[in-house]
Design a protein that fits this description.
The chain has 172 residues and is mainly β. 13% of the residues lie in helices and 63% in strands. The chain has an eight-stranded antiparallel beta barrel with strand order 1-2-3-4-5-6-7-8.
Length: 172
């Protein structure tokens, strides 16, 4: 038991860097493009739009980001997908070249003024982030693969879902 507690303390101290990281701007806020594609063997539904991004770098290796997004269906502006995702990033974050793996949760609502019913979806995601950070600016490209059980519903078939985002963020 003591070894597990000691191991957890060592891992936590390695994850949370000391004074060198305290000099960097750790919070960030910005805007970006956001795209969601849901595919089956016979179709692809694509939603595109914009996102507000909020995040915080806990250390040089761990960060937490959130996207609040509003998307339109590519074939009709009357169909909207609004939602959020929250992802933890593990890898190189902060200033300089950034590359990290991501794991997260997402939730969204599909709606249309032509219908009084809304469809709610949620699940988990795995992905990556690559970018470059300066003292006050961060540019990143993200890609994730989502769980698809909510999109499938009772339908049969092999569904896939993925998102992509390009972000420009102010670091503070």
């Amino acid at each position: 038991m003591k070894i597990h507690i000691l191991g957890a303390c060592i891992a936590l101290s390695l994850a949370i860097s000391g004074n060198a990281f305290a000099q960097e701007n750790q919070g960030h806020i910005g805007i970006g493009t956001y795209s969601l594609s849901i595919t089956d063997q016979s179709f692809t539904d694509t939603f595109t739009g914009s996102a507000l991004i909020l995040g915080y770098d806990f250390s040089q290796n761990i960060a937490l980001d959130s996207h609040l997004y509003a998307l339109k269906y590519e074939l009709s502006d009357l169909i909207e997908m609004n939602g959020y995702d929250i992802v933890a990033r593990f890898g190189k974050v902060g200033t300089g070249f950034n590359i990290s793996a991501t794991a997260g949760l997402w939730s969204e609502t599909l709606s249309s003024p032509l219908s009084t019913t809304n469809a709610d979806y949620s699940g988990t995601s795995l992905g990556f982030t690559i970018g470059y950070g300066w003292r006050d600016l961060l540019i990143s490209l993200e890609g994730t693969r989502r769980t698809v059980a909510d999109y499938q519903g009772n339908a049969s078939g092999n569904y896939d879902a993925a998102t992509g985002a390009f972000n420009v963020l102010y670091r503070f």
